[in-house]
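Morning F.,

Quick status update on the modeling queue. The single chain you submitted on Monday has been processed. Sequence for confirmation:
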Amino acid sequence: MLQILTLLGALGMFLYGMNLMSSGLQKAAGNRLRNFLSAMTANPFKGVLTGLGITSVIQSSSATTVMVVSFVNAGLLTLAQAISVIMGANIGTTVTAWLVAWLGFKADISILAVPMMAVGFVLSLSKKDKRRNISELIVGFSLLFLGLSLMKNSVPDLSSTPEVLSFIQGWQGYGFGSVLIFLVFGTILTLVLQSSSATLALTLIMLNMGWIRFDMACAMVLGENIGTTITANIAASVGNTSAKRAALAHTVFNLFGVIWALALFPFFLKFIGFITEAIFSIPDPAADGFAVVVEKTADGTSVQTDSQTSALYGLSMLHTLFNTINTLILIWFVPAIERLVCFVIKGSKNQDDNVFRLKYIEAGPLATPELATEQAYKEIIHFAQISKNGLGYARDAINETDPDKFEELRAKLVKYEEISDKIEYEIATFLNAVSAEEISANTSYIIKAMYKIIGELESLGDSGESISRILSRRNIHNKTFDADTIKKLNAMVDTVENAYDVMIHNLETAFGGHLEEISNAYDAEDRINNLRNNLRDEEIESIENERKNYQTSVYYMDIVNELEKMGDFMINVSQDLYKCKMKIS
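Structure tokens below.
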């Protein structure tokens, strides 16, 4: 029982080390990853390289695929781009297999793990954010290989219990049926652990211990490629239609690969053996009927045999070639895969028309918190566009003379105010979730700026509703605006609308990383203030000289002042954007 608990603890250390290493890498390379993704094009080959590169950096294909699903949900990637990135992610995840096979078995890197943790601790004391991120990476790397070493040492020696070993090996005597059994076992194990890398490490250990033959280990690896797709599907379950399609494309890709690999299984294994023998000058892993020879010295210490080395390298080679060949085949059929998943998952006819739902931050788990701000930022731009629509209804309400139609417009402005409250709350909730994760100082500062921006955008919704209340009070007191007053209010709305366009432009420019200055925002704010001052002076003069109705003038100036306040909220947004850029650059 203690040995089993030690094995589970070692597995937990391995998984925690991998997550810690991935988190440290994300924080250290967060800005570079954002730039890497922003350079994405529709070229499938560049998409594959992007997926390969990101997965190699963050050491988790599951994190990459969840990120891709999130970005499709956020409109940052098209479905075709996402499919090619997922293909590259499947190749990138094979780097882990080689690291484990080389460093975890051939060279016992766990000897250096504890000294490396000391280095990581020293770096964690640094005041520089970058060094602390690197310390997290080093500690995670050390824990990963310490966990792997403990797993190897805590696995029971079945040679002392031949009946158990005989039971396990008995499942390998059903020909192709055994291949399917171990494929299902690999799938289920990956579903349980939610990490194909952890399952692969266990497969390598079982192979190295001689528990299973090389061909059964290969079948498990194929199953692991099916099991790993569940993570993306879980993430997509709460996303939009495009996110679900991206996750399904991942499943289609891996299922297709497993089908052709099973159909050509004997020939594929021979090909793997030929490549492994040619590259590493070691025996074919299938040369002795797939059996792995385990030898021990007189004192019981295990000695790495050529058979074990061949099997470990052969399994890593199968993992790499399986995903590479699958990508080389399917990269030419990205449009066909896109059509297939669109056919299987139908789009909602009303989905694109409903501007009131959150569009970009509904994609489930935060696998890559350093990149999650991209989704929130996209949602903030969407929020600003919705807010501008509210200004359009305010203009219509100002110009409307029919009481019934005015009430319809007033109800819309009240609804827009409620919508802005809800969107602010949902974005803030998402940002809270991101802040709760391990993020870099730059990302933390960006999130603080986002909190301020969504507060300003919510205030814009309040102003639209306030204008409707002013107009409603005017109507209750049977007052009306003459044609000249309506003309002046429309001019004020035009000026505010221009400021809206400037604010949205600055939001989009900052999102692309190109906001160098905000003189356009200051110019727009000056135009609003100057027009407000001129209109106020003219109205005071009209009251004095033309004996204009004072109460009507009050309603008029209240609307002008409310519109001017909207300009204040908008300049605040641009200022927050610029301050944030100056802080993190």
